[in-house]
Amino acid sequence: MAAILALSPVCNTPVSLGQTMDVQRGVALFRRACIGCHDGGGNIIQPGATLFAKDLQRNGVEGEDEIYHLTYYGRGRMPGFGENCTPRGQCTFGPRLQEEEIKLLAKFVKLQADQGWPNIETNEDSTT
Fold it and tell me: Which family does it belong to (predicted)?
């Protein structure tokens, strides 16, 4: 348990309650929209397009803005999740995310990528 907590971005990165809440919301959004393909930062569909920093950089996705754009509009096999994503064939058939949710998700993914995708634990995990 101590190792999980030591590696958790919830323990290492946030310096305020607001940042901790953003991380918690980021975890929840990631679990809802991304974990099916990107569990642990990997990619079960396209192994060279993981969410690890080296793959993001190699694929021209280095900052939060690029992660936001990719999440909103999609690219290649990755569907877009934005409310106004076009063209329709590139967008998810599932629920769309609001702009603020995608911004928070991009921030969370960047944080995790910068830390090498450490294990994450949420308040939900400790109560279940």
Answer: Belongs to the cytochrome c family. PetJ subfamily.
- Structural domains in the chain plus CATH codes: 19-115 (1.10.760.10)
Strand partners, 74: 79
H-helix or E-strand containing 20? helix 17-33
Residue 118: how many CA atoms within 13 Å on its side-chain side?
18
Span 25-35, pLDDT tens digits: 999 999 999 99
* Residues ≥6 apart with Cβ < 8 Å to 87: none
Contacts of 48 (CB under 8 A, 6+ apart): 55, 58, 59
**pTM of the full structure:** 0.81
Could you give the CA distance from residue 84 to residue 72 in angstroms, rounded to a whole number?
A: 8
